[in-house]
Amino acid sequence: MKKKILIHDVANHLDVSIATVSLVLNGKAKEKRISDELAERVLRYVEEVGYKPNQLAKSLRTGKTNVIGLVVEDISNPFFATVAALIEQKALARGYHIIYCSTNDDAAKTRDLLSVFQARHVDGYILALPAGVEEEVRALVRSGKPLVLFDRLLPGLLTNAVVVDGASGMYDATRHLLGQGYTNIALVTARAGQLQMASRAQGYAQALRERGLPELVQEIAFPQVPEHILQEMETFFAAHPACHAVIFATNYLGVYGLEALGRLGRRIPAEMAVVSFDDNDLFRLYSPPITVVAQPMEAMAEESISVLLAALESPNTEGTGRMVQLQLAPQLVVRGSSLRLTS
Amino acid sequence: MKKKILIHDVANHLDVSIATVSLVLNGKAKEKRISDELAERVLRYVEEVGYKPNQLAKSLRTGKTNVIGLVVEDISNPFFATVAALIEQKALARGYHIIYCSTNDDAAKTRDLLSVFQARHVDGYILALPAGVEEEVRALVRSGKPLVLFDRLLPGLLTNAVVVDGASGMYDATRHLLGQGYTNIALVTARAGQLQMASRAQGYAQALRERGLPELVQEIAFPQVPEHILQEMETFFAAHPACHAVIFATNYLGVYGLEALGRLGRRIPAEMAVVSFDDNDLFRLYSPPITVVAQPMEAMAEESISVLLAALESPNTEGTGRMVQLQLAPQLVVRGSSLRLTS
DNA sequence: GTGAAAGCGCTAACAT
DNA sequence: ATGTTAGCGCTTTCAC
């Protein structure tokens, strides 16, 4: 049990006051006209004994924790895991740390998480939230803490946000399938009341409407036990034998969809053309490779953290600060799963 | 900018002292014989105005943060992402929060992270570390903070640990391939000096030794740019045309391996039988499905957090505490990728 | 049963 | 140029 060394000990040993040590450590030496020689001596000793200021005390005093709260739907989802890893890396490079939590799309859990983050005095928030927490987020904004919504907006909430234009992504995907000659195109989406799902569905609907074709939408309730999801999908596909093309609105739906189609023995793309939102290893390496609407994850991470840090470091502590709403373009990556075989 | 409510405000409003409020809030009301009526009144008002104690101040005072530092190799790796999600969930259920960071297998970055966690006074650590930080971890142990190594041990370090018996997993996998009639079995592993890699390689070697068969091991340096990894693999496979079975020592090697084999046009399992360590969606849904050595992720998460919390809540603050080393059994999941086609 | 007061370790305004 | 000191918000001992 090594005894923790304190600023007091450092000051004592060097025979200076703790204020001097503190000032040197916080880069205020010049400003306070502390001799370079002394400053150097302090730094050297601190390094030597490995003194690390107690961040709790520091934060309590300064009101700044250098911690960012990251709230995602599910950290084990490859999309969120990847974006989280990128955000972590970028935040670290700028001296910030991340506390993350998964909501599992549960509003009650999310409320708890937000309140815990608040109690821990995180400096700012990056949030991908479930529906139903608008009031809490509004309060958060009012509290003056910087925050950026990512992946999805919240209805009736005007704040910093970094999202992907799912409507145009889905529109492109649907047009692509239409271009391949498919006319009976299904959309499998999540029933979750999430705004980004609605906009994806809208892009799909618009492409069909332009051609006067009917929609065929299957909503899957989430979260749910995998076996049920698979069964819902199998039932759906079985009930629509005329449907030979399907778009999955998220990566996990796509994964379940492939499994369901596999169970039904449907050959891709011969018997069923497939497109999924989100890209991942599975889609890329599947046989055939799956056509996807890829989200720009690197850009989402970069923009989210940039917008947040800009707000964090802006001088206007009042709520008058500027607001940034970014909408990034996804990219349709055409692969074998959606190509009409030459007949 | 809503004004933050303090314990002081609560006490003032109720016309009691802050001590009373604090005691009630910390469940010491009975012990201190505070009237039920008063306690009830405090609780109700606290609830009403949504008072949340400042965790920084609380932690500074009590020395307890209720935060656990989780250090993994890469949070975007499905294995770590899944285990992290499980650990987070289990920790939350017990009132603890997680700060996580990825090491990217970089010893210097890891040293930084550990030191930051220390400065933030996390209550305990769950660690999957790169080689080269033994000294720091030893110091951490000496400092008396509970810690559990997971996924991998560190050479010469005796601490709490939850790992998987990679040797027996690989032994089983190799025996399985031998049983299918393969004799020229390659192992593709990561050159990283990690103990769990060594033990996996050893299981493979032992199975071959028992049959008097030669080893064929390819080490891939990590981390590295994807394109290089693919090329290294392709070169390796091209250089060993007699090799018709391969085992990948981790999930990411397996993913790259499938891509490399795909590029080379090798059919699985007809031209190359494939087994990978770790299971994931890709392996499960690939055509053919990939035989894997699956790690018990749920159990790893559960045991890691249990061991840590046990240490955290044990009364012996001295280093005399008990030490737990758990080795969990992985499970060979045989799928189509490793089955000899009936000829 | 309840309240006053002493810190936890640090920063920064104010003295000197 | 450097030292003194008053908090940051909370917990908890000890006196009433």
Automatic annotation (TrEMBL), chains A, B:
Keywords: DNA-binding, Transcription, Transcription regulation. SMART domains: HTH_LACI. SUPFAM superfamilies: lambda repressor-like DNA-binding domains, Periplasmic binding protein-like I. The keyword DNA-binding applies. Residues 7-62 form the HTH lacI-type domain. It comes from the Bacteria. PROSITE patterns: HTH_LACI_2. Gene3D superfamilies: 3.40.50.2300, lambda repressor-like DNA-binding domains. GO terms for molecular function: DNA-binding transcription factor activity; transcription cis-regulatory region binding. This is HTH lacI-type domain-containing protein. The lineage of its organism: Bacteria, Pseudomonadati, Bacteroidota, Cytophagia, Cytophagales.
